[in-house]
Amino acid sequence: MPRPIFARISRPALSHNLDVVRRRLDAARPAGKPARVWAVIKANAYGHGIERAVAGFGKADGLAMLDLSEAVRCREAGWQGPILLLEGIFEAADLDVVGRYGLTISVHHPDQLALLGHARLARPVDVFLKLNSGMNRLGFTPDAYAGAHARLVALQAAGTLREVGHMTHFSTADTGEGISAQLEVFRRATAGLPGPSSLCNSAASLRYPEVAGDWARPGIALYGASPFADESAEALGLAPAMALKSRLIGTQTLRPGDAVGYGGVYRAEGPMRIGVVACGYADGYPRHAPTGTPVVVAGVRTRLLGRVSMDMLAVDLTPVPQAQAGAPVTLWGDEGLSVDEVATAAGTIGYELLCALAPRVPVHFEE
Ligand SMILES: *Cc1c(COP(=O)(O)O)cnc(C)c1O
Fold it and tell me: Total structural domains in the chain?
């Protein structure tokens, strides 16, 4: 028998979450002008698998990612719609693939403009010029934007490019600071320039749907996790697309003062039973999750104890005294335990846990 750990990934949940985000966007727009949605599937679709994401997001208007090989996998999985490379190309050879597979590329750096200037593409491609509106990650500064745009328009006239759009990325859409300063920079830099716009990640799509422009770019919400620290995925109407499940493979009875796991960092205060779960950091469970991190055993919420090992972790069986080896365990994404709650307990965000699901964990795909 294989180790009892597995991830359950739900196609209906992926599709449902896309609908939820789309409804939010469209409710803020004039009737008959629906938003187009790039479903962001970078990092192996946030751990869910490219092919499964292609199946789940069949009704998206486009798919967006960073990795050329993931883009090619989408085409091979039958996706015929637009595909956006969020970081564009990294070297000249990438342009061959871009032309051959009809990919849309972000252009965020002068080197990419130079490469496009020499490109001999199989067919004209669409681009989104990226503005650094204040996040200071990727993109042209407002001062350089018009010049970069003029070069793209020249390449459009020369037949290298088809559509030239505009994109930017908000750094504080999930906080009280909001997006107004960056939005103002974007509006000023793109004023009077033709072409579609793309502004909003999940947080901005959900909180500021009215500014989404022509194409929204939600990621995390599509997987059923929240982009916000102060609003749960459940409250947003999102359904977890990934559940990490396992079983108890052992139990121990402790006396007061007995220590649990490496470093003996948890010590029993009184007599207690603990369970040992087949799940460790080599499965993608965060090693830095502390004692107290929520875990569900046999349908009952309890807590992690001591340090997470490579292949195992220990849980308190005090609230589930009947639990024996073989009892089912939910690490996240089911039975009311969200990945965001586990992430918060571990001092990180749901994104990191989903992306870190290890290749060794078998996936059960619910079609
Ligand atoms: C990752 C990413 C997104 C999606 O962000 P979420 O917070 O997961 O919704 C959108 N746009 C760009 C450029 C990204 O890198």
Answer: 2
Q: Would you say 247 and 283 are in contact if contact means Cβ atoms under 8 Å apart? A: no
Contacts of 151 (CB under 8 A, 6+ apart): 113, 117
Distance CA 286, CA 290 (A): 9
262: DSSP letter: G
Catalytic positions: 42, 262
Distance CA 258, CA 243 (A): 32
User: pLDDT (tens digit, 9 = 90+) per residue, 37-50?
Assistant: 999 999 999 999 99
Ligand 1 interacting residues, C-beta cut-off 6 A? 40, 42, 86, 169, 201-203, 217-220, 227
- Residue 171: give the domain boundaries: 11-223
10 Cα: distance to centroid of ligand 1 (angstroms): 21
Mean pLDDT of the chain: 97
Boundary (domain end) residue, out of 191, 223, 255: 223
Which residues fall within 8 angstroms of residue 257, CB to CB, at 6 or more apart? 267, 268
Mutate to test the pocket of ligand 1, among 217, 226, 339, 349 (most ligand atoms within 8 A of CB): 217
Q: Are residues 170 and 263 in the same domain?
A: no
**234 domain residue, yes or no:** no
pTM of the model: 0.97
10 Å Cβ neighbour count for 92? 12
Distance CA 344, CA 347 (A): 5
Per-residue pLDDT band for 322 (boundaries 50, 70, 90) equals very high
User: Which residues lie closer than 8 Å to 75 by C-beta, 6 or more apart?
Assistant: 83, 101
Nearest ligand 1 atom to alpha carbon 220: 8
Nearest CA to ligand 1 atom 6: 219
